[in-house]
Amino acid sequence: MSRGRPRLINNLATTSLIYECQKGLKYIDEEAVRQAAAELGL
To answer: What is the pTM of this model?
Structure first.
């Protein structure tokens, strides 16, 4: 049973990508992942 972990990972990745695009950067960095996690309540 995955308990929704793949969906959580996908949501984190997608939110990180959106955050980086908004900043106009080409690569996802640690700050983007932390910001995405905070936005998702992780």
So the answer is: 0.80
